[in-house]
Amino acid sequence: MQNKRFISADRIVVKIGTSTLIRQNSKINLKVIKKLAHVLSSLKKDGKDVVLVSSGAIGVGMGVLGIDTRPIKISKQQAVAAVGQAELMQIYNEAFHEYGMSVGQMLITRDIIDYPESHTNVMNSFQELLSMENTIPIVNENDTVTVSELDHHTKFGDNDQLSAIVTNLVDADLLIMLSDIDGFYSANPLKVPDAKLIDQITKINPDIIAAAGGHGTKFGTGGMTTKLKAAELILKHNQQMVLTNGKNPEVIFNILSGEPVGTLFTKNPQ
Ligand code: ADP
User: Fold this and answer.
1) What is the rounded radius of gyration, in angstroms, for the C-alpha atoms of the chain?
2) In this structure, are residues 53 and 16 in contact, taking their beta carbons and an 8 Å threshold?
3) How many other CB atoms sit within 10 Å of the CB of residue 72?
4) Prediction pTM value
5) Fewer Cβ close by (within 10 Å): the C or N end of the chain?
6) CATH architecture, domain 11-265
7) Nearest residue to 43 (alpha-carbon basis) of 101, 125, 126, 127
8) pLDDT of residue 157
9) What is the atom index within ligand 1 of the atom nearest the CA of 177?
10) How do residues 140-192 score in pLDDT, each as one tens digit?
11) Which residues bind ATP per the record (predicted)?
């Protein structure tokens, strides 16, 4: 039995990936959303500050529109995301209402980093939402307006990095990244079945980067590469990140009680 971890977490950001939210049959995993709503609502009621960063808009949109493969054309992706985002928020709304919570939708772009005014505005919104007793902010990239052009980059690129940026912005103690895999392995377990789960990572070195393979499912986008970039940002700001399987979001309780769940990214090995 491994030692307990010391996890400081008065302010927590939880990121849930598309591969956890959407089943292989393209249907949304309502069981996961309901459990997530239960866990985050109880943390909030216990006095913790909680922010949810949710992927899944395109995946959910594909299900609503009956599209089987992720569109390649950007405008099509944006349209599918617009449909999916509305559906997703409706589902979150209903799930959180069960526990007396409201949700606040925050659709943001990279402008919050590049433009001081946008930064101030988003910080003010976060502060107000976090100070509300029964409200959880749910963040996603504003897919319909983001562009990635030479003179104007408004895209974060992916929600893994977005969640790390949000963790930095709101000065959270911990980022919990819920994916479809138990943690970071010595190699992609889909390709190397005897790959070993790594308990803790203190530095993103070339060996770790080399161990990150592609994404696992047709819905997943970033794979481990973007999760490592996120972890790099977290370590740079002396924060902590736990990467684990989100199939049962109650795992968040285990993480907060110090159980050695998933992979802990920290500068202070425990
Ligand atoms: P999400 O939708 O949660 O962001 P992704 O599908 O983008 O998830 O990424 C998770 C996938 O990354 C896993 O299912 C796994 O197949 C793949 N992967 C690649 N390299 C590794 C590794 N070293 N350890 C764990 N998973 C890995």
Assistant:
1) 18
2) yes
3) 7
4) 0.94
5) N
6) 3-Layer(aba) Sandwich (3.40)
7) 101
8) 72
9) 3
10) 998 888 766 656 667 777 899 999 999 999 999 999 999 999 999 999 998 89
11) 15, 179-180, 221-227
